[in-house]
What we know:
Helix content is 85%, strand content 0%.
Amino acid sequence: MILYIFISCLLTGYIGQFLYTQGKAWSSFLIPDQSLTDKLNLILLTLFYLLNIGFIFLSVFIWEHELVGLDLATYIIKRVAIIIALIGFLHIQNTLLFLIFFYFKIHLKWKL
């Protein structure tokens, strides 16, 4: 269980910081107000952390204590894979929303 918590928190922290720094470039391009961009990125990062930490705690509470060896490794890999898939889904969703916003901003001359 400790290994699962460590791997999950490490992945969540690393991927969260990576997406946060990469998201600044997208947000800055779409929203000229730097203050608004920083707040938006911080809100997205906070929601990302809360969602993933919630899933990690949920996984710990429903942990099957009798697992050993290969069963334990399979259980940990499945849980980490679910977190990675969830992260990927949320990232694609946010990217698509940014692209839709970008389309309307460029083609329809939206301004913030």
